Amino acid sequence: MDAIMAFFSNEVLWCAVAAWFVAQALKIPLYRLTDKKWDLTRFFGSGGMPSSHTAFVVSLSIMTGMMAGFDKPEFAVAVVLACIVMYDASGVRRETGLQAEVLNDIVKKVFVDGQPITDVELKELIGHTKVEVAGGFVVGVLTALVFILL
User: Fold this and answer.
1) Residue 115 φ then ψ, to 5°
2) Per-residue pLDDT reduced to its tens digit, 87-120
3) Cα(22)–Cα(3) distance, rounded to whole angstroms?
4) What pTM, to 2 d.p., does this model score?
């Protein structure tokens, strides 16, 4: 029973979850600003501004440093994890999204006997631009600061 209570009172975990939630929620109005339409499904999607993965791991890192100490191995592990996630979000996952855009364009242009080969489009919002990762970084820092100051 103590383990369950400890899980639910873990400030580091809840701060990270809150940062993810805030970043995902921000995607809806920011998508509206850029694409001129409301899309509530952006809350559940990957990609877009800000990066919720980045917000999640940055807030985790800051809270880990505050709780365990910035000179502790736990903080170092959290920072290394955050760096890997941010690199992956802006590198590998972004390239996958760009490839999906090219493939979707090919599918739209190629016809067999006047019919499209397929009408299934690949998901293009998979990764993040560096600006979107920076946005997630800011959300992660601000969420951690709110938790620290409360």
Assistant:
1) -115, 145
2) 888 777 777 777 877 777 777 777 545 555 656 6
3) 27
4) 0.72
Q: HSE of 125 in the Cβ direction (CA atoms, 13 Å)?
A: 14
What the block records as the tokens of 11 is: 């400030």
Q: How far is Cα 59 from Cα 146, in angstroms, rounded to an integer?
A: 10
User: Is the dihedral angle over the CA atoms 59, 146, 46, 51 positive or is it negative?
Assistant: negative
Phi then psi dihedrals of residue 91, to 5 deg: -110, -85
CA separation for the pair 148, 83 (Å, rounded): 22
CB 54 within 8 A of CB 140: yes
Instruction: Return the closest-CA partner of residue 23 out of 44, 2, 3.
Output: 44
Q: How far apart are CA 26 and CA 130, in angstroms?
A: 17
